[in-house]
């Protein structure tokens, strides 16, 4: 039987081993975004915002976009949204925008109060299955895409992702100059 003192010693040893493994120079950190040659065009879409205005991804041509598929009932989404609000506030003057895509079946009835409660400062549209399918079948929430100034998907984050991972990707993408032609729209999806 382990005494509390022995249990603490075992725990300390385990944590030390984990710490050494995490600090190993053999482990390479993942790149914050895909190399340019591996990026594919983000599908354009036609979705409505809370005011009934039609929004297209191509409206954001020349900007770095954080496209977040979320739902009001999603716990990890509630963790990430305050970060996204800060990113919007910090980077909006540098050619960056956050665009939320609500995937709630109940629609604006539940989404509008949720956005108001959290003080969301970026545009949100109501998503649908065709749009989710166009993005590879959004099977888990949150699913967040970082889209470069050329309208290509530079990173995909499924599930709760570390704040620093988003920040690193955004910073890297903001270093690229805006293209002359902006986003080249793919076929519109989700049009009604």
Structure at a glance:
This protein is an alpha/beta fold and 192 residues long. It contains five helices and eight strands.
Output the structural class.
alpha/beta
Any low-confidence stretches, pLDDT <50, length ≥5? Answer: 4-29, 182-192
CATH architectural group: 3-Layer(aba) Sandwich
Distance between the termini: 67 Å
Could you report the average pLDDT, rounded to the nearest whole number? 84
State the shape.
globular
CATH superfamily: Glutaredoxin
Rg from alpha-carbon coordinates: 20 Å
Q: According to CATH, what is the class?
A: Alpha Beta
Strand order of the largest sheet: 1-8-7-4-5-6
β-strand number: 8
Number of domains: 1
Order of helices and strands: HEEEEHEHEHEEH
Helix tally equals 5
CATH fold name = Glutaredoxin
Query: Major sheet: size, sense and barrel closure?
Result: 6 strands, mixed
Strand content: 15-25%
The helical percent reads 25-40%
Attribute tags:
single chain, Glutaredoxin, two-stranded antiparallel ribbon, six-stranded mixed sheet, 5 helices, disordered C terminus, 192 residues, alpha/beta
How would you characterize this protein structure?
- This protein is α/β, with parallel strands linked by helices and 192 residues long.
- The chain has one domain: Glutaredoxin (3-Layer(aba) Sandwich), CATH 3.40.30.
- The chain is 34% helix and 20% strand.
- The chain has 5 helices and 8 strands; from the N terminus they run αββββαβαβαββα.
- The strands form 2 sheets. Strands 1-8-7-4-5-6 form a 6-stranded mixed β-sheet, covered by helices on one side. The protein has a two-stranded antiparallel sheet with strand order 2-3.
- A hairpin with a 5-residue loop joins β2 and β3 (54-56).
- Residues 4-29 and 182-192 have low confidence and may be disordered.
